Amino acid sequence: MKIAYVLNTYPQPSHSFIRRELQALEHQGVEILRLAMRPSAAALADPQDQAEAARTGYVLQSGAGRLLAALAREAAAPARFAQALRLAARLARASDKGLLRHLIYLGEAAYVKQRCAAAGVQHMHAHFGTNAAAVAMLAQVLGGPGYSFTVHGPEEFDAPQALSLGEKINRAAFTVAVSSFGKSQLSRWASFGKWDSLKVVHCGIEPERFAGPAPLPQGPLRLVAIGRFVEQKGQMVLVNAMARLVQELPDLHLSLIGDGDMRPPLEAAIAAHGLQDSVTLTGWLAETEVQAELDRSHALVMPSFAEGLPMVVMEAMAAARPVIATCIAGTPELVVQGQTGWLLPAGDEDALAQAVLSLAQTPHPQLNAMGQAGRRRVLDRHDSAAEAAKLAAHFRKAITG
């Protein structure tokens, strides 16, 4: 099989799950053409991301002239071109991005369709139900191969009508959700006749990366939180909780791994609370460095307000670390209260602080048992090779009918 992956910005430091999916598919013999609209504006710290960037074709870097030329070639089939133009206009009316943006998507779609034809691509797959899925859908209408796409959330669930999510699902060969919760949300927008095309394929971890997890450390409690510094990740709640926790646990330390627009407010809050010695902002780290931070920690904390199915939780569980997480979206499908960690309401500083105190008071052997239970659970449910095999089977069925 030859599949084109149609992506918006790729690779990104926070999207390592896409890279793992691609690599797992390739290990199973699937040939993949990587087509992204643009490269990441963030520096790529991980050598694997750097290698992926070198293998990816960037549509917008081809220049406006080539996109216009691609559109002109598609106009030679006036019926199909008119259909795609009408669809682009309909998507524009539903969204807040306007007609010009959607005409650019149409130009990208023409370019993608022609690249797929030249490469012998049999099917297109997009990640996220945003503009990449729109480009794949328009490329199909222009005469390109069929498409599918993976929805992660929460962005798609926040604006399903503006994204024309229902239309994208209904035209797709199949649509992937990364959790049962995600599938339930897609069912709200899919036609009843398309419910059978909604598939659950989990994001996966590579078991070999976690073959020998480091023992749970002794000594003062160390926590780690990983994610983009954006409002939905809830790091400010965690910083505010830390201000209270250090009164009872003066040796407590938190590493915040990531970066983003919320960094200045987080730095200001850390300074205002006098937490400079208790909280470290590391920036983005390579996978080996993230693993080292997990090895030094007693638990991962994920205080998010909105999520899909968090990869960082999977990785912490694979590293045999208990997890403190908000009870949202697909997270309860990963974290089992009292068995692999603690679940708490989103935005509740009191509950978050209490969960950390409970962690601190839990005997070391019990914490170790929780970590091992989480490891068994995630290795059983989220092996990247097994999940890639499911996805490859869906591709094969879409191609052969």
TrEMBL record:
Q: Which Pfam families match?
A: Glyco_trans_1_4
InterPro entries to which the protein is assigned, alphabetical: Glycosyltransferase_grp1
Q: Which UniProt keywords apply?
A: Hydrolase
Keyword Hydrolase annotated: yes
Source domain of life is: Bacteria
One of the record's GO molecular function terms? hydrolase activity
Name listed for the protein in its UniProt record:
Glycoside hydrolase
Question: Whose protein is this, by species?
Answer: Leisingera methylohalidivorans DSM 14336
